[in-house]
Design a protein that fits this description.
Blueprint: E1 2-18, E2 24-44, E3 48-53, H1 64-76, E4 81-87, H2 98-113, H3 120-130, H4 134-139, E5 142-147, E6 151-154, E7 162-167, H5 174-180, H6 186-189, H7 207-210, H8 216-222, H9 224-235, E8 240-243, E9 250-254, H10 257-266, E10 271-275
Parallel strand pairs: 3-4
Antiparallel strand pairs: 1-2, 2-4, 2-5, 5-6, 7-9, 7-10, 8-9
Helix pairs in contact: 1-2, 8-9
Amino acid sequence: MRISSYAKINLGLRILGKRPDGYHEIETIFQQISLKDELDIEPTDKGISLDCSPPVCPTDETNLVFKAARELQKKIGRQTGTEIKIWKRIPVGGGLGGGSSNAAAALQGLNSLCDAGQSIEELIELGARIGSDVPFFLLGGAAIGSGRGEKLKPVKIFQNYWGVLVVPAFSISTKWAYEKSNFVLTKSLKKSNFSSFSEISFDTEKWSDFLVNDLEEVVFNAYPELEKGIEKFYASGAFYSQMSGSGSSLFGLFSTEAQARKAKSIFSEYRSFLFQPVSKR
């Protein structure tokens, strides 16, 4: 079986405070995009075998795909063997959720291939044990995430646009970004709650007024070239541009494919991708 594993961007991110468990309470808008990895899944006699091409991620028990296969085995009480190969295109370390997406794809593929009989609700519960973003990739499309990002509410938002994704050569630690943020929420408090974004999303001129990423301030202070990238997107005609999550990836959204292709050419010094939103898995 070959299954697609789509990347995501965060259209916005609000930090609402620190939780007793040490994590941060957030509100975010996840959006799946057409940039994807692919997983080949094949049943074997026993054991879990994992390979990655190109070899940019671990293939041992630390890989979320390995964890997903093992958790599903535990859940169904069968040590079904599997061989999984990840064809990697989503950049590693850019905040695009590639590892979580791969884990979600593995859960769905193995559930079907091994006739495990798990409902989507059961898979989402299982995915939450593996990583806080895995449930979103099982749900797919666009969703508002709260809590640590694992509490999801599907949302219908405007999808008729083209995007350019820019991925710098460096990655940014999510843990570092949250720890360094001073959590001054005045900017977020001026914005509407993300849950009402669907009501105005058809008016793309309002996106930059409505949406915010609370991690931008601390990240841009340390990496000013990212802020300059946002400025370049707007100068090239983007109706909205943002850092995705804690970075380092940036994206710009455009009304037409021609605009997006022209903007992509401006970022020749970076790895970049043209994409469209994915409405559902």
